[in-house]
Structure formats: structure tokens, C-alpha cells
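@channel sequence for tomorrow's demo:
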Amino acid sequence: MTGKPRASKQRDRILEILQSNRIHAGAQWVYEQLRSEYPHLSLGNVYRNLNILVDLGKVNRLPLGSGSDVYEAVKDPHYHFICDRCGEIFDVEIPEELQAEIGRRIQETEGHLVVSRSVEYHGICRECRRRDQ
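C-alpha cells (generated this afternoon):
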């Protein structure tokens, strides 16, 4: 992206929606939230604004391999647990000391220098497990 993008009420509103809860939202979901408020809004416009927010560092894009990216406004370091049954995404907090220890072990045993982390855990969430019982 070159230069700073012009201010946009729609973009501000998208950020507000993502910040309102710790949610992991697809562009389609964001579009549905804004459709009545902005009747001329297109899904393409939502994608463009989400990409600008990612470029500005205000939103994270999570390419989870499902074909559609998911976005979140949470910027603190955390990981994700993805339920393979219902598709729900949960934030997982792992202490920084443990994360740093894993990075140190990778460097000591493999010789690689870890400069960033992106970890997903997959399994069956608590609610799906309850339904199975």
C-alpha cells in the first residue's frame, strides 16, 4: 500500500464491529452486519477495507485454510483453537515464558532462529464434546 488511505466511515465501522467483541469474523459476516446501515455497500468494499485495516496493523488476517480468511481486531499475542466439528474459533492464551522456551528449544536443537509464531490447535470444542455425551 502506498501512502496513507483516506479516512472512511465504513472502515471505521468495520473496525468498531471487530473490536466490540473478541470475534473471528469472515468478510461475509461483516458485510451482513453493515448491509442495513450502508445499503450501497458491496462485499468487495468490505474486503478492500479489511485489507487496508490489516495493512495498517489494526486487524489480523487469519488464513485458516478453510478457503475464506477470518479477521480479528485483537492485537495481543495469542493462539487459536479451531473446532473441527463446528468450525468455531477460540482464543488460547499461552504464557510468554512457555512460548519463549519453545523458541529457545527450536534454536538449540535445530539451529533455527524463531522470529515470529503462528500456531493453531485443532480438535473438538467443549460444546461439541458435551453434545456427544
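heads up for whoever presents: The chain has two domains: 8-73, 76-133.
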